[in-house]
Amino acid sequence: MKEKKCFVIMPFSKTESCSQQTWTKTYEEMIKPAITGSKLGFTCERAKPRTGSLIRDILTKLNVADVVIADLTDRNPNVFYELGVRHTLRNRTILIAQDFEHVPSDLQPYGVIVYGRGQTGRDDFKNKIRGILREMIEAPDKPDSPVADFLTETNRALLSQEKSANLRKLTAFLSELSYNADTADNILVLAKQSLERKQKNRLGVVAQIRFDDTCLKLLISTQYIGVPNGMQRSLMNLSRSINIYNCWLGNWSTATNLQSTENTLSEYLPKFKKHLLGLLKQFSKIRVDYLKDNYQEQYAPAVILMSKEHEAYVEST
Q: pTM for the complete prediction?
């Protein structure tokens, strides 16, 4: 079992109700035995008296400790300062006190252990500490302070905003796929009419028809939602195809061999439209799953390689 660290912040010198010897006895006979005796793989260390040279060391330990215990008895300013630092840095902090009256109202909802003297008090304290340590091991990210609650709510709000923005982008991408599939149909009709020489105003209409890839480029460039590697590569190929088709459309009205261009479009556009509709179906499902929080975003590699030989130039991550 990997060794885990418990760091204890508590007064050293005399306070209103406890002498220096009482604090030492509380740590040595109650807190430390409860931590090490839990048999959950914890070591226990007490914060040293505060001096300028030791403050940085204390802050480091507050950051790296798996669990911190803070004794709020007599509301020692140093203890509350260090507790505030810990609450800002990490979860998994246990609050204890000799009486509930020592606990500020803002902290009272966070499961304070009130400990008593004597063997009965020590046994009860040990059992409660063991139970809390087990809960922390099972749920290490559970909020346990006002700061954690605030950050959790803030993160939820940010995630909600991000989700709404991504849903709007996905919706726009679906609209773009539908538009392009419809554009393919229109081009096929124009190409057929031109081949039959039934379209008199072909040149003016063709000059205005193009496929759109604005939303596609946004999805590829930002990866605002993780898709499988194969699908990401397919989207890149789609972008390339749109560029090619748009070049053909741009040259259609000025091509020396109109029939050759129209034959090419008539041959390849049905397959292109089928590909667009396939993506429309896939991303429609992704959007619904994402909306219902059922979509499992795929791991995105650092680089999407379009050719196997490119691997020789890219370091693995």
A: 0.54
